[in-house]
Amino acid sequence: MQLMHNALPLFIPWTMPDEDDLSGWQTFAAEYIRFVDEGDSSRTMLLDDVMLEECGNVDGQLILDVGAGEGRFSRMLAERGARTIALDLFWPMVQAARHRSPGEAAIVRSPATALPIASSTIDTVVSYVVWVDVPDFRSAIAEAARVLKPGGHLVAANLGFITASPGWERDADGRRLFRPVDQYVDERPITLNWRGHQVVNWHRPLSAYMQAYLSANLILRTFLEPVPPTDTLRHNPRFEDWYRIPEFTLMRWQKP
User: Fold this and answer.
1) In this structure, how many other beta carbons lie within 10 angstroms of the beta carbon of residue 222?
2) What is the model's pTM?
3) Distance, CA of 40 to CA of 6 (rounded, Å)
4) How far apart are CA 242 and CA 154, in angstroms?
């Protein structure tokens, strides 16, 4: 079976991962969609503008959004003139993206580790805080590199070293003191309770991610640990974390 998107063949057959690899997303996709609709401030206030800036002028570009969820960022790119392919593993996400996206957008169900897309056909691949949810992140990065055109870019935001931290230590008045970090060098799954659901995030040291990109023969063009662009929220307890310890990394890699 083939799905055509502006003459780009997408080869659909793929193997469903074992249930253990689904990281809980299948069961709380609806809750995640509600969370996005409510407005995830870490995205809307911290990451969106930087991600869009690193994507550059997307008008007329073919962009693959890996782990697109319900398609929010894909729609932002489409509004700027991009031709988008939104890809996600989970049917609830795919169905929501299809319902919300314009008719010309391609919405595909597939794992990030076996992209149903021909090699060297994509202008930009976007991974918006996705690798932390992918057990085999090395294969996912290699696949992203494979489908990029020569000279194309992979723009990837991901959780930083805080995945190795259980949270803030606080004083008797509840003020933040520091975040302890342990087992940073170990690649391991971490089970979290998120809005009443158990979800698995994967912690890896930064060196593991960097080696995966380099092994895919990609060239680093941008490395950021995003912080707010102004000090207007610095004394707001809700956003204090952003100014003290970066929660995310954002990289732009280029295929030679």
Assistant:
1) 14
2) 0.90
3) 32
4) 24
Q: What is the DSSP letter of 69?
A: T
Residue 40 burial (CB count, 10 A): 16
Bridge partners of 219, per DSSP, are 254
| Local confidence pLDDT in tens for the 256 residues of the chain | 234 444 444 544 444 544 444 556 667 888 888 989 999 999 999 999 999 999 999 999 999 999 999 999 999 999 999 999 999 998 889 999 999 987 778 999 999 999 999 999 999 999 999 999 999 999 999 999 999 999 999 999 999 989 999 999 999 999 999 999 999 999 999 998 888 888 889 999 999 999 999 999 999 999 999 999 899 999 898 899 999 999 999 999 999 9
Q: Do residues 226 and 250 touch, judged by C-beta distance below 8 A?
A: yes
Cα(183)–Cα(226) distance, rounded to whole angstroms?
A: 24
Retrieve residue 68's tokens.
Answer: 């697109």
